[in-house]
Design goal:
heterodimer; A: alpha/beta; Peroxisomal Thiolase, Chain A, domain 1; 2 domains; nine-stranded mixed beta sheet; two-stranded antiparallel sheet; 11 strands; B: mainly beta; OB fold (Dihydrolipoamide Acetyltransferase, E2P); five-stranded mixed β-barrel; 5 strands
């Protein structure tokens, strides 16, 4: 396996864009990434697309060539990968493997989702399909419900409080308010978060990520060729993808995700770094409790202490380990299929020192964690500055 | 069939096909036979709602979904059918 670099990143804004279709969003992100890398579309040798539910959300299937041809990819393999909310993290993993293995020298990975054209109950129903529809789904478990049950159990076992969950939302909104590409650029207070409309108790609307449209893309090349293109590349130190049962009720302890722990361990081991050496992280805060659990599973906080860790400001931009400086899924938005590659773009921005008023002071090493469903897929990527 | 509530939630924002049921309570229950299952808890009053550790019993199965009802709160339970994980 040879070392790989990200030489270009591109994102659309995340938000509700009634006048934009899925293909134009993806094309915009890919064109930004190609321009950023300094390469043209015909130079691309393989294209991986992460998308969760294009057929259900917009009635379009066969998405990879549908998008690839729109940006000028000529007769190359175009492949869509679906792994729920980890679809484009998973696409990134497979693209990285193909470059690392020496199959290709220039690969584009994108993620896209167009969700806002459906009503919220219909979006809820489509998202529920990432759970086990023969059991929990049939009983009426929505994704907020699954994470609400995780929150309830975490509160029971560790004394985690509603105020600690709210602290995650307040912090992510404070970060997202400074991100020009974020969906909801709005500062909120703890009282607002606590008083939000109940979605699935104990979670309110302020504990839940957003229903968004958006796309993100990156360009990968072997590290030894990266400096031919530009000096702003980031080194991919490791990418690990793991899996687990889809149904939440099959897990022995729902206050942790075995797939996150094992992907984290593998990624740390391959990269040769530990959690203490990560300068900045983007973690999958589909719900506030998910960020708390991720901070424990990835080794940033001790088991059961993720709540107090967040409430004490340890995960703020100037904290011990800045988490979700982009605003996270909570404020930046969560166009499901775009989220994994979007996180990679956000980490590369930090490693380049391009994050503006959200820039962390030390930015040599960054981590991205992308979660599918209630923990059945996890992708952890560790990147280093050039 | 009896069990203990491992975790629970009351769902307010339901998927389209269950919109008429909302708000409804879901729970993962730990059954006497060691199985864990995602079930509905019957009743809409505060007193019907089950908390973590409460005892519940099976009432019926409809459309592949198990419906349980609360029989005793954690504080009233004299014996635990199975230890909580």
């Amino acid at each position: 396996m040879r070392p790989v670099a990200v030489i270009g990143i591109g994102k659309t804004a995340f938000g509700a864009f009634p006048d934009r279709d899925l293909r134009s969003l993806a094309a915009e992100a890919i064109e930004h990434a190609l321009t950023d890398a300094g390469i043209s579309a015909p130079a691309v040798e393989s294209f991986y697309l992460g998308n969760f539910a294009g057929p259900s959300f917009v009635g379009q299937n066969h998405l990879a060539p549908y998008i690839g041809t729109a940006v000028g990819f000529e007769s190359i393999p175009c492949t869509r990968i679906e792994n729920a909310c980890a679809s484009s993290g998973s696409a990134f993993f497979h693209a990285w493997q193909s470059v690392a293995a020496g199959l290709y020298d220039t690969v584009v990975v994108a993620g896209v989702e167009k969700m806002t054209s459906q009503s919220t109950p219909r979006v809820t129903e489509i998202l529920a399909g990432a759970g086990d529809m023969s059991g929990e789904g049939r009983a009426g478990a929505t994704f907020p419900a699954l994470f609400a049950m995780i929150a309830r159990r975490h509160m029971h076992q560790y004394g985690t409080t509603r105020e600690q969950l709210a602290a995650v939302a307040v912090k992510n909104h404070a970060n997202g308010a400074k991100n020009p590409l974020a969906h909801m650029r709005k500062v909120i207070t703890v009282d607002q978060a606590l008083g939000g409309k109940p979605i699935a108790e104990p979670l309110t609307v302020y504990d839940c990520s957003l229903i968004s449209d958006g796309a993100a893309a990156v360009v990968l090349v072997p590290l030894h060729k990266a400096s031919r293109y530009n000096s702003r590349f980031a080194r991919v130190l490791s990418v690990a993808q793991t899996s687990d049962h889809v149904a939440l009720d099959t897990k022995a302890d729902i206050t942790e995700f075995p797939a996150v722990k094992s992907a984290g361990q593998k990624a740390y081991e391959t990269a040769g770094v530990g959690p203490g050496e990560i300068d900045v992280a983007e973690v999958h805060d589909c719900f506030t409790i998910a960020e708390i659990v991720a901070s424990e599973d990835l080794g940033f906080a001790n088991k059961g202490e993720g709540g107090p860790f967040a409430a004490a400001g340890c995960t703020a931009i100037n904290g011990r380990i800045p988490i979700n400086t982009s605003g996270g899924l909570k404020s930046k938005g969560h166009p499901v299929g775009a989220t994994g590659v979007g996180q990679i773009c956000d980490i590369v921005m930090q490693l380049r020192g391009d994050a503006g008023e959200r820039q962390v002071s030390r930015h040599r090493t960054g981590l991205a964690q992308n979660l599918g469903g209630s923990g059945a897929t996890c992708v952890v990527s560790i990147l280093g500055a050039a | 069939m009896k069990g203990i509530v491992y975790t629970e939630t009351v769902v307010h924002a339901a998927p389209a096909q269950y919109a008429a049921d909302a708000p409804y309570q879901l729970a993962i229950v730990h059954l006497e036979n060691g199985e864990r299952r995602t079930v509905r808890i019957l009743g809409r009053e505060t007193a019907d709602r089950a908390c973590v550790g409460d005892r519940v019993e099976f009432v019926e199965e409809r459309d592949g979904v198990s419906y349980f009802r609360k029989t005793a709160a954690l504080s009233e339970a004299t014996e635990m059918p199975r230890p909580l994980v």
